[in-house]
């Protein structure tokens, strides 16, 4: 076949989104005779979409220089933008910024009133948001969007509005931020933007929904991304991220085996032909599932591999250390993480683990401070998922403080929301705490029912460590149920074991001292003991305290 024939086939393949075929044909034609500018741009795009990042950046650099040679400054700026776009999204801020500077110099040399100015502004804003300056990023994205609208460029408008939405979410303005994400998805699902832009928008919108704790939207757009990827079998770039997002949704909904399979599948497209940053996220998800199943050796290995690939292994690794009994290590890790976290999104993802670990370490005060901060963030964000996280943490702290009634109120709110979100593991965890709250109130039957319901869910999920924990708690409930004491006598005994006098017990239970004395006498008689210390020892031995 002649070079012209190969190019015709390559362009046709590109047009029908057969990216691997287009890449192979364009590469073959390029070996026969150097490609012209338009075909170089096609080759760079196809290389990017099949995951050949290094090839893509090399070809875009060739296209940049070819544009300069032909005296087409606007095309050179556009090539510089795509180079910066790819490099910045890989985390290469220095080289990405360098290409933005090159493009800007061309504009400063006289090419000012053009759409390319907006594309470079988008690159500047992207650097700002990666650097943590969301306010400046928001304003710069806005300027880019205005230029895109003036020149009727849907790719630029979509990218810039997307950036504004993410910036607003990070600034704490969740509702308008999410509204912008919905707006840009209208353009994407209507097919108004190019393939590279569409894939980037899908993944970025899903990440934005996760930052906003909007589980329902994340699920909806993940399904749309799956459909989009399925329509392009040769697409590699976004397929791995899609599988990771699908696995995250599956984990929340309790389909752990399917989630593990998807996370493992994600590692293949994310690792070839060059490794993508999201492979660390796939490994972290695998580590989380191993931890929840009780496969601790596999979990630790997956956390460490994720860390090697640039994914912070926390708070999962700290929770693994906790369940393995190394409370000091877990406490040290989570304290460091919370102290280092500055932005609200990062802190909100750490505080629930901080509450759990601090309670296990006996530091109820620190756990309470973290739960208070979670409630404040949840009130600002106003998303059901985060409200449930905050209510759950608050309930756990109240159980730790011994306030069973207030704990039940908070935990029931969390349970209802988890149930509505179809999050069975979190629902079961809430029921465990509800059982402990019932126990604090002397309702052993209620405690047994809650623990039994939680154990059934944990068994269905394969959450081995949680099954063992609930069975241990249930044995304590059984010991209390077979106790010779009445509910009121058991309540009095717990206060005796806490070192309280009859007068203090009477005040706590709104009884007379005489009634308390009679209860204490009955307790001594039923247990066959003659002192408060002996009664206290019995209470601890039989799980009554």
TrEMBL record:
CDD domains: LuxR_C_like. It comes from Nonomuraea mangrovi. PROSITE patterns: HTH_LUXR_1, HTH_LUXR_2. This is LuxR C-terminal-related transcriptional regulator. InterPro entries: Sig_transdc_resp-reg_C-effctor (IPR016032), TPR-like_helical_dom_sf (IPR011990), Tscrpt_reg_LuxR_C (IPR000792), WH-like_DNA-bd_sf (IPR036388). The keyword Transcription applies. Residues 478-543 form the HTH luxR-type domain. Keywords: DNA-binding, Transcription, Transcription regulation.
């Amino acid at each position: 076949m002649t070079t012209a024939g190969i190019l015709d086939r390559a362009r046709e393949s590109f047009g029908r989104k057969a990216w691997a075929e287009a890449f192979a044909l364009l590469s073959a034609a390029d070996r026969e005779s150097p490609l012209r500018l338009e075909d170089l741009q096609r080759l760079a795009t196809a290389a990017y979409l099949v995951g050949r990042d290094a090839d893509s950046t090399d070809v875009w650099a060739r296209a940049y220089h070819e544009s300069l040679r032909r005296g087409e400054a606007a095309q050179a700026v556009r090539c510089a933008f795509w180079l910066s776009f790819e490099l910045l999204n890989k985390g290469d801020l220095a080289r990405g910024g360098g290409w933005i500077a090159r493009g800007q110099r061309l504009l400063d040399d006289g090419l000012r009133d053009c759409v390319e100015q907006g594309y470079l502004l988008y690159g500047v804003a992207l650097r700002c948001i990666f650097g943590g300056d969301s306010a400046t990023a928001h304003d710069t994205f806005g300027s880019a969007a205005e230029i895109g609208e003036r020149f009727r460029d849907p790719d630029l408008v979509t990218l810039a509005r997307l950036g504004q939405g993410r910036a607003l979410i990070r600034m704490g303005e969740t509702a308008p931020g999410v509204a912008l994400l919905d707006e840009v998805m209208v353009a994407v699902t209507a097919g108004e933007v190019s393939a590279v832009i569409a894939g980037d928008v899908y993944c970025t919108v899903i990440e934005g929904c996760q930052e906003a704790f909007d589980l329902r939207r994340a699920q909806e757009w993940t399904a749309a991304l799956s459909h989009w990827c399925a329509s392009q079998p040769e697409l590699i770039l976004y397929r791995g991220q899609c599988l990771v997002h699908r696995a995250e949704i599956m984990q929340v909904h309790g389909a752990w085996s399917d989630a593990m399979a998807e996370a493992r599948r994600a590692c293949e497209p994310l690792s070839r032909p060059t490794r993508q940053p999201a492979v660390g996220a796939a490994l972290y998800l695998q580590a989380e599932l191993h931890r929840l199943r009780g496969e601790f050796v596999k979990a630790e290995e997956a956390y460490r591999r994720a860390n090697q690939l640039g994914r912070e292994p926390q708070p999962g690794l700290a929770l693994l250390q906790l369940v393995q009994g190394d409370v000091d290590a877990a406490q040290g890790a989570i304290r460091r993480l919370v102290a280092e976290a500055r932005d609200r999104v990062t802190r909100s993802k750490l505080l629930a683990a901080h509450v759990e670990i601090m309670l296990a370490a006996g530091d109820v005060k620190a756990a309470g401070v973290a739960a208070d901060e979670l409630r404040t963030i949840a009130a600002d964000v106003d998303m059901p998922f985060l409200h449930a996280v905050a209510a759950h943490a608050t309930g756990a702290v109240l159980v730790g403080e011994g306030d069973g009634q207030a704990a039940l109120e908070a935990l029931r709110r969390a349970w209802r929301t988890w149930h509505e979100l179809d999050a069975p593991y979190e629902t079961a965890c809430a029921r465990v705490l509800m059982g402990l709250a019932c126990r604090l109130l002397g309702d052993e039957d209620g405690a047994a029912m809650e623990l039994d319901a939680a154990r059934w869910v944990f068994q269905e999920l394969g959450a081995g460590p949680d099954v063992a924990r609930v069975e241990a708690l249930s044995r304590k409930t059984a010991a209390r149920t077979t106790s010779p004491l009445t509910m009121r006598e058991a309540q009095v005994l717990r206060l005796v074991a806490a070192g309280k006098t009859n007068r203090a017990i009477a005040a706590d239970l709104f009884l007379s001292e005489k009634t308390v004395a009679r209860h204490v006498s009955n307790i001594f008689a039923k247990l066959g003991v003659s002192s408060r210390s002996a009664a206290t020892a019995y209470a601890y031995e039989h799980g009554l305290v």
